[in-house]
Structure formats: C-alpha cells, structure tokens
C-alpha cells in the first residue's frame, strides 16, 4: 500500500507559472500581465482557461502511472483567513491575490478531480499543509506516506513513515551530490525525495526542528517574523545544542542575568561568532521581538496534525478508484485530446477494457 498526498494549491500554481512565457515577467503591472495571459494562455473554445489545469492533470496521470499509489488525496488552500491570521494578522500579508486566470482554474481542477473520483479536502480555517499533516499522521502507521509539494514547510512532517517529494529545480544536483543518478530512481520528475536521513544531511537538524528553525530565523515567504538579528548561523548551532526553542529559553532564563558571561561563552563554543543573546532576550511593548516573537513564529510555522473534521476519514475513502469514464468526458470537455490517450478504454458501466 502507498498513500500519496498532493498539495493541490502548490501544484496548480507551479503548473501555471511553469507554462508562462518569459515575456510575461517583463510586464510591470498586474493589469498588463492579466491582459497578456488572456491572449496567450491555453483556453478551450468555450472560454475555459486550462494552462494550469492541463499540466497539473498530466503530472497527476504520470504520478498514478509510475508511482502506483493505492491511496490518494489532494488538499487545497481556499482562504487566507485561517487560524494563523487570527494569531498574526500580517501572516502572508505581503502576498498579492492570485491572478484571475489562475484563480478561475481552482474550480475547474477541483471539478475534474471530483469527476475522476479522487479524494479532495479543504477547510476555510486551515491550509493545505494542515490537511496533509493530519492525514499523514493518521495513516503513516498503516502504510507509507508520500507528500508531493513545492512547499518546504512540509519537510517538518518527515518521519520514518512519511517522506516528501519536493518539487525543486535543484533536484538533479541534490541527487548528483550524493552519487545518485535521478534517471535510475523511482521518484516523480523534478522532485527530490526527502527522508529523515537526507533531511539531516542537508539541514543538520531533525525534521521536527524545522519549526524551531523558522521560529528563530523567520520566513519571509510567509511573513513569519522570527527573532530579528538571529540568522541561520546562530539558529542551527543553538538547535543542535538545545533541540527546541522552549529548552533554549529555559536555559537562558535560568542563567541570566547572573551568569550571562557563561551563556555567551557557550554560544561561542558552539561556533557562533556574534552572540545572539541580546536579540533573544530583547523585550518591547511596541515591537514583536525576543521570546514573544520566537513563540509566535513557531506557532505560525507549525503544521497542524489534529484537524477534528478529518478524524472520521478512513483509508477506504482515499482508495484509488479513478472513474475513467467520467474522466474521459471531462477531458473531452476541456479539450485535453493528448491526455485522452493516457486513459484506459472503458465500457459504459465503467469496466476497464485496455490499459
């Protein structure tokens, strides 16, 4: 058995921008870009844009054919006003709304997956990562779990039972640096397979420490503040020594201010050139700094694995039972003529005739 969990929002967005002509990036305003795409983007005769749906569908079919998952589910982001925004209103606050041409294709892709009988999940209060995290933890003891995404946040979910297929332009180089030929590996195209071993080789930390790393360093892509003044050169040695930010702060609070010099000496022995102690202990009524910033940042970075609404989901509901007859109808509607060849021929009752 094998469960594959796909970050639908990540894959659809990647599929969209992976097919955008280079000229697009020379345009400065969103209005210019939108007008350009309306002329260039793949579209059906009836006016349905498919320049993201088509490549995502092709990737999905290849994934099913080559990886042969017995179970499959797709998770979606549907709102930015999740519980994280309640914790920190500026969370992902710098991101622009999706281009309308991309936004329209979420519904198209979800409708297609529904017709194909592929399980999908989305909730207003949670992100796709939280859905994936909950399903991974729920089923990883029963079967191997593989997460397919471009979002590095998912790396914190790696365990003995869960691996991450990370879409990255560095995939081939990462394999090559380990003496591996990607063409000989059974991994999806353009992905690097992260396990507990390969994660530790690259980051020098355990996967679960990814959230503590972001708690200290922050993450500009999600607008997670972190502790100002503490970068990777300090964060990684500190986490190797203390494990998590809670234990780091317990140590600092036990030692300071009486034994501040000893703390600084330890930090120096850890290979940290400039002591981050002042940044870690800074307090302010007007700024988000020090411990308060670290604790909040960790809460923002931590993927939830306990969504109650998914408690009743069973393995049977995630089983791969693609309705090829309905898939064929949808492909014809969306004018996916080349992808029709990838579908088995089926009788009216849905029985497969040929692969």
Automatic annotation (TrEMBL):
Q: Which organism is it from?
A: Alicyclobacillus acidoterrestris (strain ATCC 49025 / DSM 3922 / CIP 106132 / NCIMB 13137 / GD3B)
State the UniProt keywords alphabetically. Answer: DNA-binding, Endonuclease, Hydrolase, Nuclease
Q: What is this protein called?
A: 5'-3' exonuclease
Question: Which SMART domains does the entry mention?
Answer: 53EXOc, HhH2
Kindly list the biological process annotations in GO that this record carries. DNA replication, Okazaki fragment processing
| Pfam family for this entry, one | 5_3_exonuc_N
GO molecular-function terms, A-Z: 5'-3' exonuclease activity; 5'-flap endonuclease activity; DNA binding
| Stretches of the chain forming a coiled coil according to its record | none
The record's annotation in PANTHER family points to:
5'-3' EXONUCLEASE FAMILY PROTEIN, FLAP ENDONUCLEASE XNI
Location of the 5'-3' exonuclease domain: 1-319
Give the function comment from the record.
5'-3' exonuclease acting preferentially on double-stranded DNA.
Does the record's keyword annotation contain Cell inner membrane? no
Q: Which SUPFAM superfamilies match?
A: 5' to 3' exonuclease, C-terminal subdomain, PIN domain-like
């Amino acid at each position: 058995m094998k469960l594959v969990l796909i970050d639908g929002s990540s894959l659809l967005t990647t599929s969209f921008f992976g097919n955008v002509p280079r000229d697009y990036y020379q345009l400065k305003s969103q209005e210019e870009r939108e007008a350009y795409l309306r002329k260039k983007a793949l579209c059906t005769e009836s006016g349905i844009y498919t320049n993201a749906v088509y490549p995502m569908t092709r990737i999905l079919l290849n994934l099913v054919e080559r990886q042969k998952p017995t179970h499959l589910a797709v998770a979606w982001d549907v709102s930015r006003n999740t519980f994280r925004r309640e914790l920190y209103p500026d969370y992902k606050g710098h991101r622009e709304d999706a281009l309308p041409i991309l936004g329209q294709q979420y519904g198209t892709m979800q409708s297609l997956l529904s017709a194909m009988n592929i399980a999908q999940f989305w909730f207003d209060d949670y992100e796709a990562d939280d859905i994936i995290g909950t399903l991974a933890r729920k089923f990883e003891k029963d079967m191997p779990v593989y997460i397919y995404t471009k979002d590095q946040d998912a790396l914190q979910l790696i365990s003995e039972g869960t691996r991450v297929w990370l879409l990255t332009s560095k995939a081939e180089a990462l394999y090559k640096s380990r003496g591996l030929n990607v063409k000989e590996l059974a991994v999806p195209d353009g992905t690097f397979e992260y396990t507990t071993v390969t994660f530790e080789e690259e980051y020098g930390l355990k996967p679960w420490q990814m959230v503590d790393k972001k708690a200290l360093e922050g993450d500009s892509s999600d607008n997670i503040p972190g502790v100002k003044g503490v970068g990777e050169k300090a964060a990684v040695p500190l986490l190797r020594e203390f494990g998590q930010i809670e234990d780091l702060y317990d140590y600092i609070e036990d030692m300071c201010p009486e034994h501040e010099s000893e703390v600084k000496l330890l930090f120096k022995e850890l290979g940290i050139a400039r002591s981050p102690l002042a940044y870690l202990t800074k307090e302010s009524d007007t700024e988000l700094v020090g411990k308060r910033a670290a604790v909040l940042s960790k809460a923002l970075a931590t993927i939830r694995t306990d969504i109650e609404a998914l408690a009743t989901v069973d393995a049977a509901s995630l089983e791969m039972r693609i309705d090829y007859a309905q898939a064929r109808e949808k492909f014809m509607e969306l004018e996916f003529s080349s992808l029709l060849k990838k579908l088995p021929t089926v009788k009216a009752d849905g029985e497969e005739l040929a692969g």
